[in-house]
Write a structure and sequence with these properties.
Blueprint (H helix, E strand, L loop, with lengths): L6 E3 L4 E4 L10 E4 L2 H9 L6 H16 L7 H16 L6 H16 L5 H31 L7 E4 L14 H10 L5 E5 L6 H12 L3 E5 L4 H6 L5 E4 L3 E2 L5 E4 L2 H10 L4 E4 L23 H4 E2 L3 E2 L12 E4 L6 E4 L2 E3 L3 H10 L2
Parallel strand pairs: 4-5, 4-7, 5-6, 7-10, 10-14
Antiparallel strand pairs: 1-2, 2-3, 8-9, 9-13, 11-12, 14-15
């Protein structure tokens, strides 16, 4: 099976898979400026922390590529403004702000170059961020696959596969590599209400790789864990603090607490770019609240709640570091004590 990439880049636009259409329709959308990219991120046509970071990097390049003036200071101001605009697209996933900052730093560091050269530098850095993510995901997959044994039954939530990254995945990349290594295991995927990323995308990606897959409602996880069916849990992350507290798709905290109570391993798979060097605690992680229509209807198609009902729709929750068995990164596993070991691996970069 040919690997479907969530994003393809060209000098004057990027082409993304519209993930709101998956798995029933494979539709591509072209983004030609920063507004197109921001809209795609907000509407979750592209989603997943690493993929959002990659899209943001190309969005910044697209936002400055048509700058006409020869005024260098105005060009730098424009670069900063586009970066700030894109960073507001989704506040929780730190990979977006990280990628934008990397691109911005590259431009500022080369200030003495011509504007044309700075545009080219920005483009090449966006390409580098995407290619670097491909390498990171493969490394995480290799480290994480060692945690999976024959006959394991694993659980995951949301989507942390190829569609959430540059094409391979974080948490799902672990399963992909274990399958490549010949392990015999199976995966239960939570449907992930309200936008059903687990049902629509995760189950689709796992089945494409011929991994034995079972889809469940989110509320079924506790019963399966209590019955001893689930042996290990692997999830992705959108932001990880220096203490090890982390944000991921809403419902992840439920699984983390269940895993701790039932004494089963709970692994978080994420690149070092997901670690926020500026946050010490999960209390400081900004949480995105989304449109009430995501809750009151079934995937925007059929209303299921009475008109006027009050709705709260946080897209993410925060799990405490003490609930995590280990973080799987491209540098290997980070184990407790996290306040010491996270800083060690980050400062060693």
């Amino acid at each position: 099976m040919k690997n479907i990439l969530p994003l393809a880049y060209f000098k004057d636009h990027i082409k993304i898979v519209d993930q709101t259409k998956l798995p029933l329709e494979l539709k591509y959308v072209s983004c030609r400026n920063e507004r197109d990219v921001s809209d795609a991120i907000k509407k979750m046509k592209i989603r997943g922390a690493p993929a959002i970071g990659i899209a943001g990097a190309f969005g910044l390049y697209l936002g400055i590529r048509n700058f006409k003036s020869t005024d260098k200071d105005r060009f730098i101001k424009r670069t900063v403004e586009v970066a700030e605009y894109l960073a507001e697209s989704r506040p929780t996933a730190v990979n977006l702000s990280w990628a934008l900052e990397e691109l911005k730093k590259k431009v500022l560091h080369n200030y003495r170059r011509s504007i044309g050269e700075l545009k080219d530098i920005a483009y090449k850095e966006a390409v580098h961020i995407m290619q670097d993510d491909q390498k990171r995901c493969r490394l995480m997959g290799a480290f994480g696959a060692k945690l999976i044994k024959n006959k394991d039954v694993c659980l995951t939530i949301c989507n942390a596969g190829g569609m959430a990254t540059s094409g391979y995945g974080t948490a799902l990349g672990v399963f992909f590599k274990a399958k490549e290594d010949g392990r015999k295991f199976e995966v239960f995927a939570c449907e992930t209400r309200p936008l059903l990323q687990g049902a629509r995308i995760t189950s689709w990606e796992l089945m494409q790789k011929k991994i034995k897959t079972t889809l469940i409602c989110d509320s079924m996880a506790a019963s399966l864990i209590k019955r001893g069916i689930i042996k290990k849990i692997f999830v992705g992350a959108d932001r990880i603090t220096l203490s090890g507290d982390f944000a991921n798709k809403i419902g992840t905290y439920n699984l983390a607490v269940l895993a701790k109570f039932h004494n089963i391993p709970f692994y978080v798979v994420a690149p070092l770019s997901t670690f926020d060097k500026n946050l010490k605690s999960g209390k400081d992680i900004p949480i995105e609240f989304r449109n009430k229509d995501e809750i009151t209807s079934l995937y925007f198609k059929k209303r299921i709640a009475p008109p006027g009902v009050r709705v709260v729709n946080p897209a993410f929750d925060v799990s405490d570091a003490k609930l995590v068995s280990a973080f799987v990164t491209e540098k290997g596993l980070i184990k407790p004590p996290y306040k010491i070991n996270i800083r060690k691996i980050i400062h060693a970069q």
